[in-house]
Design brief:
The chain is an alpha+beta fold. 22% of the residues lie in helices and 37% in strands. It has helices spanning 10-13, 24-39, 121-134; strands spanning 44-46, 56-61, 64-76, 80-87, 90-100, 103-108, 114-119, 144-148. A five-stranded antiparallel sheet has the order 1-2-3-6-7. Strands 4-5-8 form a three-stranded antiparallel sheet. The longest helix is centred in the first third of the chain and has 16 residues, at 24-39. The two termini are 18 Å apart. The mean pLDDT is 95. The structure holds zinc ion (ZN).
Length: 156
């Protein structure tokens, strides 16, 4: 399994399908996405980035791992924040993206349970970036001040 790159890659530009059943294969996929994200020093990864067009994202923020199946952002704060983002699928490209500061997320977890939680800070940022991937949206579509550098930054 490898990370798919390129802003015009059709695999990164199509809308992913919802997961209908939490099968063994889905659990296996999630267990494979975690080490890939970690190997590449990412803090988030969406299934389309490994070529699987399903609505699954993983992220790791402050040592807490999240696997979200069919994630939906059901509420966003009016207040926005701008942060520099990068993406494992767009190596060495960074840009400033304005997004809502806080969100409420609904999803299914790895145990198949429905969950709903509030996120702010980096977790909110990562989830919004990864959910965009599920809709074929890349951060460069929303970013200002896009730069190319090999300097290490947060990779979402
Ligand atoms: Zn990304």
């Amino acid at each position: 399994m490898e990370i798919i790159t390129g802003e015009n890659n059709p695999l990164l530009r199509k809308k992913s399908q919802p997961v209908e059943h939490l099968t063994k294969e889905i659990r296996l996929l999630i267990s494979q996405m975690k080490p890939i994200m970690e190997t590449y020093d990412g803090i988030g990864l969406a299934a389309p980035q490994v070529g699987i067009s399903l609505r699954i994202i993983v992220c790791e923020v402050e040592d807490k791992f999240y696997a979200l199946i069919n994630p939906e952002i059901i509420k966003t704060s009016k207040k926005t924040v701008t942060m520099t983002e990068g993406c494992l699928s767009l190596p060495n490209i960074y840009g400033d993206v304005e997004r809502p500061e806080r969100i409420i997320v609904k999803a299914i977890n790895q145990e198949g349970e429905k969950i709903k939680f509030k996120a702010f800070g980096l977790l909110s940022r990562v989830i919004q970036h990864e959910v965009d991937h599920l809709d074929g949206i890349l951060f460069i579509d929303k970013a200002k001040n896009i730069i190319k550098t090999t300097e290490e930054k947060n990779l979402l």
